[in-house]
Amino acid sequence: KQWYQRRVAITAGKDDNECLDEPCSDAERCSNIEGSYICDCLDTFIRDPKSRECVCSDGFGAVEAECVDINECAGESPCGENEACFNTAGNHYCECDEGFERGKKGDCKDFTPTDCEVKPKNDNIQTMTGKKVQVRLVGEVKKTWRKFADITWLKNNELWDPQGDGKERFNGFTLRNFQAEDAAIYVGNIFIEMSEEENYKCSVSVTISLKEGSAAIDIENRENFASTQKIGKGLVIVCDVQLTNVDLDNANNPNNVNWYKVNQESGEDTKIEETDAVKINKAKGTYRLWFDSPQLDDSGTYKCEFNQEGVQASTDVSIVWA
Asked: Measured between alpha carbons, how far apart are the two ends of the chain, in Å?
C-alpha cells in the first residue's frame, strides 16, 4: 500500500519536509520521513500493481477522494429479460422475476407446472454407511424428454450437484459411498423447454435415510474364567457379536473383530496376531481366540472389539494362569 519516494533531502544537517510541496496524488497521503517521504493510498483505495497508482476496487468509483459503491442496477439494468437487479457492495446479482425460473440456457422463463409422468423407482430409500445408493427415475424415455428436458437437484432445499458426491445421469444419480451427511430429502426439478412460448415444469422427490447400525458384544464363556486356569492346558475365549443394520462383506471372516491384550499399567492395547501358540478363527457364529499352551505370563485382560461400518463395540475378560 505504500509507495516510497527515495531522495536525500537534508539541508545543513536538517531534514526537509517534502510533503509541503504536495508530491503525492489526490488519492494518496504524504508522510514525511528522515531524508525522504512516503505516498500511501488513502483509505478505501488500493494500489494497482502495474501502474502503481491508487485506484478503487472493481465496482467502486472515486468521489471526492473516497471510493464509493457504484450502483450497477441504477439506470439501464445489466440483467436479462424477466430478471430483477440487486445491488451489493462492489457488485450486483440478477434473479428471475416472480413467477419466472431460470432455464437450461440461463434465461428466465415462465414454466407451466405439469404432470410429466416421471417418478422415482423408490421414493423412500434406507441404507447404511459406506453403501452405494442409486436413485432412478422412470417414465422419462420419451423422445421429448431426451431432446427438451433438463433436471436440477435440491438437497434439503439447497441447490445440489450430484457430480460432487457421486455420479449423475438424466434419469437419476448414484452416491458411491453413502455417509450420514448424505441423508436428506432430494428434489429434482425438471424443466421442459419446447420453445420460447411452450415451457413446462414438474418435480420428483426422494427421501434417503440412514439405518443406524449397532453391535451387541459379549464373552460367551465368561463364567469359565472366574477361577484360575491351569498352565499348559488349551483354552478358547468365545466372543459373540450380534449386529443390527450392519452389512459385512464377509460375515465368516474371523478378522471382522480384533483381539487385544490390555496393558493395565499403561492403558494401551496390544493387538494380538496369530502365532503357532495363538489362533484366531470363527466357528458356530462366534469369534474365537485360542491358546494352545498358555503360560503364566499370558495372564491378563483380553479384549474383543468390533469396529466396522461406523459401528464400534468391545468387551473384555480377565484370565489368570497358574
From this structure: 80
Distance from C-alpha of 204 to C-alpha of 124, rounded to nearest angstrom: 12
Tens of pLDDT, residue by residue over 110-129, are 888 888 788 899 999 999 88
**DSSP-based three-state secondary structure for 152:** strand
CB atoms near residue 15 (< 10 Å): 15
Identify how many contiguous H helices and E strands the chain contains and give both numbers. Answer: 2, 31
Tens-place pLDDT, residues 7-53: 444 455 577 888 998 899 888 889 998 888 999 898 888 898 888 89
Taking CA atoms, 306 is separated from 289, 303, 310, in Å, by 14, 10, 10
User: Which secondary structure element, helix H or strand E, spans residue 93, and what is its range?
Assistant: strand 91-96
Give the single-character DSSP code of 74: S
The SS3 of residue 256 is helix
Which H or E run includes 146? helix 143-148
